[in-house]
Write a structure and sequence with these properties.
about 200 residues; Alpha-Beta Plaits; 2 domains; five-stranded antiparallel sheet; 13 strands
Length: about 200
Amino acid sequence: MKKCGMLAAGACLAAALLSGCGQTVPEDITGSALAVEKSGSVTAYLVGEFDKPYYDLTELTTMAREEAREFCGGLREDAVTVESVEEARDGSGRIVLAYRFDGAESYERFSGDQFFYGTVGEAVQKGLIGDPALQDAKTGEPMLPGALEKQMGKHMIITDAAMTVYCPGSVAYLSAGAALAEDGGVDVSQASGTVYILLKR
């Protein structure tokens, strides 16, 4: 499905997801983000401007729900649901549209972004990992060659979505270009290509 298709007309929104990393998600959403829960579910917050003379929250909510129903055709009814559509709390006049997905695969299909959450072993089985160059999330020290092979039971997030990622646990290693944000998320907006985030468990 085309990413955020129902908002293409009149509302230019950036994808954002929030929840995770054992951190409290900021109430005021200032940029795009992704969030994953331990269960694997993902919550997406789409943030952007909207032209009030032509759209209202009720209309946007209806459009979002229709898009979710269309996407769920033939899938589980809760593959994607609309949690809320409201104005941002920072007074900017932007709209925050919250989608909740039953898992990474549903988000991936809906958005068009690459997104994986699972163990390193599962990622290897899916052919998602070669030998990515990872560095310690705090010190920047590179992971020793072959060390990832000993982390098969650890969880990992893999994505090419250029946004902040909120994880369901503490981050151990990151690929180049990604960095820990002050609020506990992982900023991957400056990274080039696919980003790998290895969690501590």
